[in-house]
Each structure stands twice: as structure tokens, then as C-alpha cells.
Amino acid sequence: MRPSDTRQQVESFIAKFDPAIATLVRAARTKLRKCLPTAIELVYDNYNALAIGFGPTERTSDAILSLAVYARGVNLYFIHGATLPDRDKLLEGNGTQGRFMRLTSAAQLDDPKVAALIRVAVAHGRVPMAPTGRRITIVKSVSAKQRPRRPA
Predict the structure, then answer these.
(1) pTM for this model (two decimals)
(2) CA-closest candidate to residue 75, choices 107, 41, 101
(3) CB neighbours of 116 closer than 8 A, spacing ≥ 6?
(4) What pLDDT is attached to residue 133?
């Protein structure tokens, strides 16, 4: 698939959401892409949510963090958040692997504490991020059946 086709496809996934959620996703995605310029962006338009993952390879298991987009909100999900030092108690959840923080504004990503947590997550990744190179976006899957993308 050509990059312009992929861009349009991802935009169509985002456009399914309420305009306020879509605006937040676009802004948060832009900030994360600037923060992680060589990351491979993996997109899953799943049954429960739209997930936009960022990692050093095309392998889902190497992803470091993702935006999880639901009808009622957006989470910044740290794939291995349970093992990250979270001195400022930014992360929620009690799973054995992941943790998340709710995003109400893309400006949260500018908070030095959040930026530091992202840097720590990248440093703890199993595979290092490439120091140079171009970002690519890959649509990994699209579920035929999906929960509503807007609140009832």
C-alpha cells in the first residue's frame, strides 16, 4: 500500500470517532511521532478500540507504547508499564504487564514527567529504537465487526 493510501486509511479510522476524540488522537499522535521519529507505527482497528502502537520494529511484541482510542476516551498505554519506575504515580492499571494513563489533552505529553516516563519506556524496550531512519506506518489489522466508535 502506498504511504498516501495508508495515511488516508488511518485518517478514516480516526474520523469514525466523536470529533473531540478524533482531534485529541490526531494531536497526541503528532506529538508521539515527533517524540519517536524513527518508530514504526502499527495500526489496529480492532473490535474494542483503535490502537496505534509505536515500536522499533514491525513486530507487535516489540512495541513500546500505544494510543488506545475508545468511544469515550483515549489512553496512552505503556506495553511494559508494570515494570517501569513510576515515581510520580502517573500510570493506572494493575495488570501483570501493561499500564496506562488517560489522555484528556495532548498537552499532557508535554509534561516533563510524562516525557521522562516515555524516555524510560523506550530505554527499557527489548529492541532499541533506530537512531536514524524514516518512520513508517503499517495497518496491521482491521476488524470487520467493531463496537460503536461514538457514545450512544
Answers:
(1) 0.93
(2) 101
(3) none
(4) 87
